[in-house]
Write a structure and sequence with these properties.
Elements: H1 5-17, E1 25-31, E2 34-40, H2 46-50, H3 55-70, E3 75-79, H4 102-105
Parallel strand pairs: 2-3
Antiparallel strand pairs: 1-2
Helix pairs in contact: 1-3
Length: about 110
């Protein structure tokens, strides 16, 4: 099996902040757009991962972007919204576009 630092990093971070780490599953797919990490977790843990106003999720996305830059890959995170989660609305993938990440876009590590 290949060495996927982005997937390992995401699993480590999320498992350390949720109440049910045994339920954390990360699926990794690669296509012409880059790497897509899909995070699945216990519905009761959604608040821990999303954070207030999405700040925790955005911080994780920024760190994944840095890891991707180090490996010359574009890494995106999709948080799977399970049935019965406590959030009243679905966090859209394109909401990450509202955050200025220009400082890490051309990062050379």
């Amino acid at each position: 099996m290949a060495d996927y630092k982005d997937k390992e990093f995401l699993e480590m971070v999320v498992k350390s902040i949720v109440a049910h780490p045994e339920s954390v599953v990360v699926d990794r797919t690669v296509d012409e757009m880059g790497v897509l990490l899909t995070l699945k977790l216990d519905p009761s843990d959604m608040g821990y991962v999303i954070g207030r106003k999405g700040q925790t999720a955005q911080a994780i996305r920024t760190l994944l972007k840095i890891i991707g830059a180090k490996n010359n890959a574009r890494v995106n995170l999709k948080i799977y919204e399970p049935e019965g989660s406590k959030r009243s609305h679905v966090m859209r993938e394109d909401s990450a576009m509202d955050i200025d990440t220009s400082s890490v876009d051309d990062l050379k590590i």
